[in-house]
Design brief:
With 200 residues, the chain is an all-alpha fold. Helix content is 70%, strand content 2%. The protein is built from seven helices and two strands; from the N terminus they run E-E-H-H-H-H-H-H-H. The protein has helices spanning 34-42, 48-70, 78-103, 109-127, 132-141, 146-169, 172-199, and strands spanning 3-4, 15-16. Strands 1-2 form a two-stranded antiparallel sheet.
């Protein structure tokens, strides 16, 4: 309702109306116990909609990452590839929790954004193989298979939809965090696979 200058709703009164777009600003108190703060972070400060959206995207991106690194290049077994993927996901989760404990944010979007970045690097390497090692990697992983194409497509589509949604509804800092998390995932996958190749 339109309010008059004193804040009361009066029919026919001269009043000022202000329309604001509700943003998604989810915060967790930094004064609570660590366990309570982690729960707040993981549950989007009690927002059911954000829980459903982000955990659906998280599931798609995690599966895509596990599938993409599960069939590793020659010299790395599937078990090692899965281990690399799980290690990356653990690193992304720790980064998300540490970040939110520090600044009071909530959510798991940094994890799925980073997972997308980590998944797209091997996919890009197979589209444009330049080294013999990349060619052998692509021959082993078979990105043309229905499973890997499907999981990659689901990851990209769901994460892109969520990214655009929060771009339009959340504060600008959220979008900046998503972009930086994507870069974090891309770089982390490169480093993790280099380490794995070096020790196996």
């Amino acid at each position: 309702h339109c309010m008059d200058l004193n804040g009361a709703a009066k029919p026919g009164a001269t009043c000022t109306c202000t329309v604001t777009r509700a943003g998604h600003k989810m915060e967790c108190s930094t004064d609570e116990a660590v366990a309570a703060r982690v729960l707040c972070i993981a549950t989007y400060s009690g927002s059911p909609f954000d829980i459903v959206v982000n955990y659906c995207v998280l599931c798609c991106t995690c599966v895509a990452l596990l599938v993409s690194l599960g069939g590793r290049r020659v010299g790395l077994g599937a078990t090692v590839g899965v281990g690399v993927a799980l290690g990356l996901l653990g690193w992304f989760a720790l980064f998300q929790i540490g970040l939110c404990l520090g600044v009071g944010c909530a959510g798991v979007s940094v994890i799925w954004c980073a997972a997308v970045g980590a998944t797209l690097r091997p996919a890009q390497r197979c589209r444009m193989p330049t080294l013999d090692l990349d060619i052998r990697h692509c021959a082993v992983t078979h990105w043309h298979s229905a499973l890997k194409r499907g999981t990659l497509a689901a990851s990209v589509v769901t994460s892109a939809a969520a990214f655009v949604y929060y771009l339009l509804t959340a504060e600008a800092i959220t979008t900046v965090a998503h972009i930086l998390a994507f870069g974090l995932g891309y770089v982390s996958e490169r480093f993790a696979t280099w380490v794995a190749d070096s020790v196996t």
